[in-house]
Design a protein that fits this description.
Pfam families: Glycos_transf_2 (PF00535)
Family: Belongs to the glycosyltransferase 2 family.
Order of helices and strands: HEHEHEHEEHEHEHHEHHHHHH
Protein name: Glycosyltransferase 2-like domain-containing protein
InterPro entries: Glyco_trans_2-like, Nucleotide-diphossugar_trans
Radius of gyration: 22 Å
GO molecular function, one term: glycosyltransferase activity
Structural class: alpha/beta
Shape: globular
Number of helices: 14
Length: about 425
C-alpha cells in the first residue's frame, strides 16, 4: 500500500497533535500534584526551617530597579538571611544607591569590582563573602514577594535537593507585547511544576534560583564562558551530581517578579541569547544525553534532553506545517483543526488562570483573553523561530564553544 505525501503529512500532523495534547494534559495533572505537595508542606511545618540564606544580587547599570530588588529581600518574613549586592563596575548610579541602602540596613553588604561579567560577580560573592548554607541568586531588575525565602527554606528540608527554581512572573504590562510575555510566563511556569516530579528539570532560572552552597563550591561555581550562566550552571550541576539520587526542583509558592521586554527588537535580542545559551550548554554537557549511568533519570537522559532538539526541528519546519494546514482548511472549508487548536489552548489557559494566586481583576482579565491564548503565544513562536534561524547560522561556533564570554547583555525594559 502506497502512501501519498499528503497522507504522510496528515498522519504526521495528527501524531504531533496527539503528543502536544498529551504533554499538556500530563503536565497539568502532574503540576497540580506538585502544587498540592507545596500546600501540604506549608501546613505540616511546625517551625521555621533551619537554614541561612545568602541572597546574591549581581548588578551592572541597574539604577532603575536595584532599590526595589534589594528592598524586596530586606522585607522578607524569613529571619535568617544576608544580602550581598555586587556592583560590577556600573557607570550609572547603581553603586551610589547600594551604598546608601547599606548604611541603612546592616543585613546588606555591597561589593564593588571592575566590570568582569555576571558569572564572575556571582562567584566573587559566593566564594569570598557568602555565609549562608543556601545561596539565592536574584537578578537586579527583579524582586521577591515577602514569603519567598520562607517557602524556599521549607523545600530544602529535603537533603536530596540541590537546586530549586522560583515561580517567575511578569510585572504589570503596559503594552501588547508585554502582555504577551505575561501570559507566556504564567502558562510556561504552570507546566514547570511537572518537571520536578518527572525528573526532567534541567533549567534553574536566574531569577530567585537557589542552590546549596556546598554543592556550588564542589563544582567550582559558575563557568565564565556562557551568556546564559543559569542554564549552563544547572547542566553543570546535573552532569556532576546526577539527578536521580540528588534532585533539582521548582517552587511554585516562591514567587518572583521580573519586568517584561517592551520592544520587539529587544525581545528578539533576549530570546536569541536564551536559545544560543541553551544550545551551548547542551553541547557542552552532551555526555548527559543518552547516558545510561544510574545517577541520571531515564526521563531526562533519554526523553527530555533529546526532545529539546526534536522540538527545535519541529519549530524549524513549523511554517511549512502551518501553510499546509491553512491549505487544507481553504480547500475543504473545514475549520475544525483551527478550532481544536484554539480550544485546546483555551482550556490550558483556563486551567492555569483559575488556580493561580492572582488578584481578582487580574484573573478576570486573563480569563477574558484565554480564548486567544494560542494566538498570543504565537507571537513568542515567531520570535523563537527567528532566534532559531540565527542559531543555525552560528551553530558551528556554538557547538565548539568558540564564544567564551560572560559579558552583560542587557535589554531595554
Amino acid at each position: 500500500m502506497k502512501f501519498s505525501p499528503a497522507l504522510i503529512i496528515a498522519i504526521t500532523v495528527f501524531a504531533l497533535s496527539i503528543l502536544a495534547v498529551g504533554r499538556i494534559l500530563i503536565g497539568l495533572i502532574v503540576s497540580n500534584l506538585h502544587q498540592i505537595n507545596s500546600l501540604d508542606r506549608q501546613q505540616i511545618s511546625q517551625k521555621p526551617a533551619d537554614h541561612r540564606f545568602s541572597v546574591i544580587i549581581p548588578a551592572f547599570n541597574e539604577e532603575k530597579f536595584i532599590r526595589r530588588g534589594v528592598e524586596s529581600v530586606l522585607k522578607q518574613t524569613y529571619p535568617n538571611f544576608e544580602v550581598i549586592a555586587v556592583d560590577d563596575g556600573s557607570s550609572d548610579k547603581t553603586g551610589m544607591i547600594l551604598d546608601r541602602l547599606a548604611r541603612q540596613h546592616p543585613q546588606l553588604r555591597v561589593i564593588h569590582q571592575h566590570n568582569q561579567g555576571k558569572s564572575v560577580a556571582i562567584n566573587h560573592a559566593l566564594k569570598k563573602f557568602a555565609t549562608g548554607d543556601l545561596i539565592m541568586v536574584l537578578d537586579a531588575d527583579s524582586y521577591l514577594t515577602p514569603t519567598a525565602l520562607t517557602n524556599m527554606a521549607l523545600r530544602f528540608d529535603d537533603p536530596r535537593l540541590l537546586g530549586v527554581s522560583a515561580n517567575v512572573r511578569i510585572t504589570r504590562p503596559h503594552n501588547l507585547l508585554e502582555y504577551v510575555q505575561k501570559v507566556e510566563y504564567l502558562l510556561g511556569y504552570r507546566l514547570k511544576g511537572s518537571e520536578e516530579l518527572l525528573g526532567i528539570e534541567y533549567i534553574i532560572g536566574g531569577v530567585g534560583s537557589t542552590f546549596r552552597k556546598s554543592a556550588m563550591l564542589e563544582v567550582g561555581g559558575y563557568d565564565t564562558d556562557s551568556i546564559t550562566e543559569d542554564i549552563d550552571f544547572t547542566m553543570k550541576m546535573i552532569a556532576h551530581f546526577g539527578n536521580s539520587n540528588r534532585q533539582f526542583g521548582y517552587a511554585d509558592d516562591v514567587i518572583a517578579y521580573t519586568p517584561p521586554v517592551s520592544r520587539f527588537s529587544q525581545l528578539l535580542k533576549q530570546r536569541y541569547r536564551w536559545k544560543q545559551g541553551r544550545f551551548k550548554a547542551l553541547f557542552k554537557h552532551r555526555r548527559v544525553i543518552f547516558n545510561r549511568d544510574a545517577k541520571y533519570t531515564f526521563s531526562l537522559a533519554f526523553w527530555k534532553l533529546p526532545k529539546v532538539f526534536f522540538e527545535e526541528f519541529l519549530m524549524l519546519i513549523e511554517p511549512l506545517l502551518l501553510l499546509w494546514i491553512i491549505g487544507i482548511i481553504h480547500h475543504f472549508a473545514d475549520f475544525s483543526t483551527i478550532f481544536a487548536i484554539l480550544g485546546l489552548y483555551y482550556l490550558f489557559a483556563m486551567a492555569t488562570f483559575i488556580p493561580e494566586e492572582l488578584k481578582f481583576w487580574e484573573r478576570i482579565r486573563l480569563m477574558m483573553v484565554a480564548p486567544l491564548a494560542y494566538l498570543i503565544l504565537y507571537v513568542i513562536n515567531i520570535v523563537d523561530w527567528i532566534s532559531l534561524m540565527r542559531c543555525l547560522f552560528n551553530m558551528k561556533r556554538i557547538a565548539n564553544n568558540e564564544d567564551k564570554t560572560a559579558k552583560w547583555q542587557h535589554v531595554d525594559r
